[in-house]
Design a protein that fits this description.
Chain B: InterPro entries: Bact_StressResp_Reg, STAS_dom, STAS_dom_sf. Chain B: This is Anti-anti-sigma factor. Chain B: Residues 7-118 form the STAS domain. Chain C: Residues 1-35 are annotated as: Disordered. Chain C: Keywords: ATP-binding, Nucleotide-binding. The structure holds three protein chains of three kinds. By secondary structure, chain A is α/β, with parallel strands linked by helices. Chain A folds into two domains: 3-165, Globins (Globin-like, Orthogonal Bundle); 174-286, Transcription Regulator spoIIAA (2-Layer Sandwich). In chain A, 68% of the residues lie in helices and 9% in strands. Mean pLDDT of chain A is 82; it is low at 289-296. Chain B is an alpha/beta fold. Chain B has a single domain, classed as STAS domain (Transcription Regulator spoIIAA), CATH 3.30.750.24. Helix content of chain B is 42%, strand content 17%. Chain B is globular. Chain C has one domain: Heat Shock Protein 90, CATH 3.30.565. Chain C is 31% helix and 27% strand. Chain C has helices at residues 35-51, 56-75, 109-113, 126-133, and strands at 24-32, 80-89, 92-101, 136-141, 147-154. In chain C, strands 1-2-3-5-4 form a five-stranded antiparallel β-sheet, covered by helices on one side. In chain C, helix 2 (56-75) runs antiparallel to helix 4. Chain C is globular, with a radius of gyration of 16 Å. The chains are: A alpha/beta, B alpha/beta, C alpha+beta.
Chain lengths: 296, 132, 160
C-alpha cells in the first residue's frame, strides 16, 4: 500500500463520515449555525431568524447531497449545481441586504464550527479526526471564497443597476423650441452614458417629430478620442432618423484637445453656446426646402 | 413573369414620386426582388423622387443596409432622388453601432416630411415628365 | 519541409474557452441552411430577447447581431447551426448566441473583424459589427474545420 492510497482511503473515510454526520444531525447543525450567526450579531441585514433557518436547512441538505457524490471536495462549492446556487443565493441575499463582505464570508465559515462540533460530538474515536477537519476546511473554505466572490459581483451588479438608473435621470431631453430638442450633458461621457443619451434623444425626436437636436457639452469636463467618437455616433444616429444635430458648448481647451487629437468633427455643426445653437437650429427648422418650397 | 420577381411590396405612383413601404419581415430574396422592381418602375415611369417608408422595419442588418445604399445610387443614376423615411430609434442606434452610416442615403423623420422634401405636393400639380 | 502545407495553416488559432453550459436555463438550436432559416432565426432570437426582458434597443442589437452571424455562417461557412441560450449570472439575464459552421474557417481573424472587409454579400461589417453589438464575444476558427462564434449580451435594465 502506497502513501497516496492511504491518503485516498482516509479521505474517503472522512468524507463518508462527514456526509453521515450531516445527514444524521442535519437539524442540529443547521440550528447551531443559525445560532452562531446570530451570536456574531452583526448581520447588518434584514434577514429574519426564520429565513436564516430556511437557508441553513437548504445548505446543510445540499452539502450532504454534494458530499454523497463523487466530485472532489475542493471543487464541490463551485461545481455542484445545488450547492453553488444555495451559496450564491445566500451571498446575494446578504449583498442586497447591505451586509458587509466580512459578515457574509463569516456566515459561511461559521458553518465550519457547527459542523466540526457535530462531528466531534458524534464519534468516540479520535482517529481520522484530522482528516475530517481537513475535509471540512477544504469544503467550506471554497464555499467561503465563492460566497465572497459572489458578494462582490452582486454588489457590482447593484452598483451597475443604480448607476444606470442615475444615468436615466441625469440625461434629460428638453424641448427648447418647436421641433428643437436639447440634451445638456454634465459630467463624464462614457459608453454606457452615451447609449442612454442616444436612446432617450432618439425616442424624443420620434415622439416630438423634432428636426434638430442640440447636444450641449458645456458641462463635460474633458473630451478624449472615445468621447468624441461617442458624440459622433450620436450625431450619426440622429441623422439616420432624419433629423439634424448641433453640438454646443465646446469650450476653448476642449476645442484645442479635439484639434490636437486630430478628431474630425468637421461634418458636425458646432456652436460656441447653447444660445447660438438654438439660433442655428431655428434657422434649420425655418429653412426653405431644397426645392424652394417652405420647409414647413 | 420573367424579369418580374414580386417582392410583395406595393409601389405606388403619386405624380412623379414613387412611394413604397417595407414591412418588418424582409428576407434577402424579397429585398433583392424589391430593389429590382423599384429600379424598373423608376425607369419605366421616369420618376424623380422615391420615398421608402421604413417605419415598420424592425431590423436593418448589413445586407438590408447595402440594399438601401445600392438602391439610392442606382436611382440617382436613373435621375431619381431617394428618401428613406421613418427609421425607428433602435434601428438607428444599432446601425451606427454596426458601423454603418448609410452614407449617401437621405433620411427623413416620417413619410410626410420625406414627401415634402421631394416636393411632392408641388409635383402633383405640375405634369410629370418635365423633370430636371 | 515541416511547413510544406503552409498554404493551409495561415489561420491563427484563437480558441477561447466557452463557459460551460451549466448556467444555461433554456437552450434551442436552429439550423442555418437556407435564407428562410435566417428569418426564423430572427424570430426565435427576438422571442428570446423578449422572454429575457430586454429593452427594445437591446432586442434590436441582439437580433441584428444574430442576423449578421447567421448570414456569415450561411454565406461563408456553407451553413451550420445557431444555438440560442438564455443564461443567468447573478440576477442578470443574458442571451448567448453560438454560431457554428463547418466552412473553410477564417484565414485572418484580425482582418475579418476589420470594417469593410468582406468576401461576400453585405457591407463587411458582419463580424466586427456583431462584436460591437454584443457584450462578450469570442471567435475560434481553424482552417478547414469551420468557425465557432460565441456572443452574449446581458440585460442591463433594472430588475422588475
Amino acid at each position: 500500500m502506497t502513501t497516496s492510497d492511504t491518503a485516498t482511503t482516509s479521505d474517503s473515510v472522512a468524507r463518508a463520515r462527514v456526509t453521515e454526520v450531516l445527514r444524521a444531525n442535519a437539524d442540529a447543525i443547521a440550528d447551531r449555525w443559525v445560532q452562531l450567526q446570530l451570536e456574531q450579531a452583526v448581520l447588518g441585514s434584514d434577514l429574519t431568524e426564520s429565513e436564516l433557518h430556511e437557508e441553513a436547512d437548504a445548505l446543510v441538505a445540499a452539502l450532504a447531497a454534494a458530499l454523497g457524490g463523487d466530485v472532489p471536495v475542493q471543487r464541490l462549492a463551485h461545481g455542484d449545481q445545488d450547492l453553488n446556487r444555495i451559496v450564491t443565493d445566500l451571498s446575494l441575499r446578504r449583498a442586497r441586504g447591505g451586509a458587509s463582505p466580512t459578515v457574509t464570508s463569516l456566515a459561511v465559515l461559521a458553518l465550519k464550527q457547527a459542523l466540526l462540533e457535530s462531528v466531534r460530538g458524534t464519534t468516540g474515536e479520535s482517529d481520522g479526526l484530522l482528516a475530517v477537519a481537513l475535509l471540512i476546511n477544504q469544503l467550506l473554505d471554497a464555499a467561503g471564497a465563492l460566497s465572497f466572490e459572489v458578494y462582490v459581483e452582486g454588489r457590482e451588479a447593484i452598483i451597475h443597476r443604480q448607476s444606470h438608473q442615475l444615468l436615466e435621470m441625469s440625461t434629460p431631453v428638453v424641448r427648447l423650441w418647436r421641433q428643437v430638442l436639447a440634451v445638456p450633458l454634465i459630467g463624464t461621457l462614457d459608453t454606457a452614458r452615451t447609449q442612454v443619451v442616444m436612446e432617450n434623444l432618439l425616442q424624443a425626436i420620434q415622439d416630438d417629430e423634432a428636426l434638430v437636436a442640440i447636444i450641449d457639452i458645456t458641462g463635460v469636463p474633458t473630451v478624449d478620442t472615445a468621447v468624441a467618437q461617442h458624440l459622433m455616433q450620436t450625431v450619426k444616429a440622429v441623422r439616420l432618423m432624419g433629423a439634424d444635430c448641433v453640438i454646443s458648448g465646446i469650450r476653448p481647451p476642449i476645442a484645442q484637445t479635439i484639434a490636437q487629437l486630430g478628431i474630425d468633427l468637421s461634418t458636425i455643426l458646432t456652436r460656441a453656446t447653447l444660445a447660438d445653437a438654438l439660433a442655428a437650429a431655428i434657422k434649420i427648422t425655418d429653412a426653405p426646402g431644397p426645392d424652394g418650397t417652405d420647409g414647413r | 413573369m420573367n424579369g418580374h420577381p414580386s417582392a410583395g411590396v406595393p409601389i405606388l405612383q403619386l405624380g412623379d414620386v414613387l412611394v413604397s413601404g417595407l414591412l418588418n419581415e424582409l428576407d434577402d430574396k424579397s429585398a433583392l426582388a424589391f430593389t429590382e422592381e423599384l429600379t424598373e418602375t423608376i425607369s419605366s415611369t421616369g420618376a424623380r423622387g422615391v420615398l421608402i417608408d421604413i417605419s415598420r422595419l424592425e431590423l436593418i442588418d448589413s445586407f438590408v443596409a447595402r440594399m438601401l445604399m445600392q438602391l439610392t445610387t442606382t436611382a440617382r443614376l436613373l435621375g431619381a432622388r431617394v428618401i428613406v423615411a421613418g427609421m425607428r430609434p433602435p434601428v438607428a442606434i444599432t446601425l451606427v453601432e454596426l458601423g454603418i452610416e448609410l452614407s449617401g442615403v437621405e433620411t427623413s423623420l416620417n413619410a410626410e416630411q420625406g414627401l415634402t422634401a421631394l416636393g411632392w405636393h408641388r409635383a402633383a400639380r405640375t405634369p410629370a415628365g418635365e423633370a430636371r | 519541409m515541416t511547413r510544406s502545407h503552409a498554404g493551409t495553416t495561415r489561420a491563427p488559432q484563437r480558441a477561447e474557452t466557452v463557459e460551460p453550459a451549466s448556467d444555461s436555463a433554456e437552450s434551442s438550436t436552429h439550423p442555418v441552411a437556407s435564407e428562410e432559416d435566417l428569418l426564423s432565426i430572427r424570430h426565435a432570437v427576438r422571442a428570446a430577447t423578449l422572454h429575457a426582458g430586454f429593452g427594445i434597443v437591446d432586442q434590436t442589437r441582439v437580433v441584428t447581431a444574430a442576423s449578421e452571424l447567421a448570414r456569415n455562417a450561411y454565406v461563408h461557412g456553407g451553413g451550420g447551426t445557431l444555438t440560442l441560450d438564455i443564461v443567468r449570472r447573478l440576477g442578470t439575464t443574458g442571451i448567448r448566441l453560438t454560431v457554428e459552421d463547418d466552412g473553410p474557417g477564417i484565414a485572418d481573424i484580425e482582418e475579418a473583424f476589420t470594417d469593410g472587409f468582406t468576401t461576400g454579400a453585405g457591407l463587411g461589417h458582419g463580424l466586427g459589427g456583431a462584436r460591437r453589438l454584443m457584450d462578450d464575444f469570442t471567435l475560434s476558427s481553424t482552417a478547414g474545420r469551420g468557425t465557432v462564434v460565441t456572443a452574449t449580451r446581458w440585460n442591463n435594465r433594472r430588475a422588475p
